[in-house]
Amino acid sequence: MKGGTEERQEAVHRLRENKRALRQEIIDLLAKTTGAQRLEESSYAANRIISTGLWHSAKRIFIFRSMDREIDTTQIINHALTCGKIVALPRMEGRKIVFHRIEHLTGPFTRHSYGITEPAATLPVEEPRDKEYDLLIAPGAAFTRKGKRLGYGKGYYDRYLATYRDRLVTIGLCFSFQLVEDIPTGAFDIPVEYVVAGGDQEEKW
């Protein structure tokens, strides 16, 4: 029994270390991303998403507001607001994220200790209701074409998707270099259904 416990602990430790190594590799690449590359790949990915049937049928868009080095979601958010879709951005509350509805990208926002710009807590809370009308666009350190996702190590989106994935269509959004062959995953890692990577020509829908 003791041996089995030690083996499980070792397997968990190995999984964490493998994830940490891949995550650091991607973070190093993000730090080297040029403004021109970010603009080009962000525009490509945005146009790819908003041209899909999934986008046109969605009434509610749950999406992250990108940080400086992430693929930029501004075009997607603005297009959704212009089209009259409900747009909700995540706010960290303890160990979970809660999505709040926004009317525009001028606020009100607050700044989380992680450096993330979040919607103010006073804004209305939005929850997914129906997979036919609710679309979530998720960030990640890395994705595979089959939808495996490597987060940034806090588990916020895995916990959220564990609760709501039956009510959402999920799309992972990333730069082309964040698309990898494989990702080490465990029982609590929740995949996305689709992946859009800037400049990628082999997306499968």
TrEMBL record:
Enzyme class: ligase
GO molecular function annotations of the record: 5-formyltetrahydrofolate cyclo-ligase activity; ATP binding; metal ion binding
Keyword Transmembrane helix included in the entry's annotation: no
InterPro entries: FTHF_cligase, FTHF_cligase-like_sf, NagB/RpiA_transferase-like
Keyword field contains Lipoprotein: no
Reactions accelerated catalytically: (6S)-5-formyl-5,6,7,8-tetrahydrofolate + ATP = (6R)-5,10-methenyltetrahydrofolate + ADP + phosphate
Coiled-coil regions listed in the entry: 5-32
The protein's Enzyme Commission number: 6.3.3.2
Pfam families associated with the record: 5-FTHF_cyc-lig (PF01812)
GO BP term, pick one: folic acid-containing compound biosynthetic process
Binding locations of substrate: 70
Keywords per UniProt: ATP-binding, Coiled coil, Magnesium, Metal-binding, Nucleotide-binding
Binding site for ATP: 19-23, 149-157
Needed co-factor(s): Mg(2+)
Family designation: Belongs to the 5-formyltetrahydrofolate cyclo-ligase family.
Protein name: 5-formyltetrahydrofolate cyclo-ligase
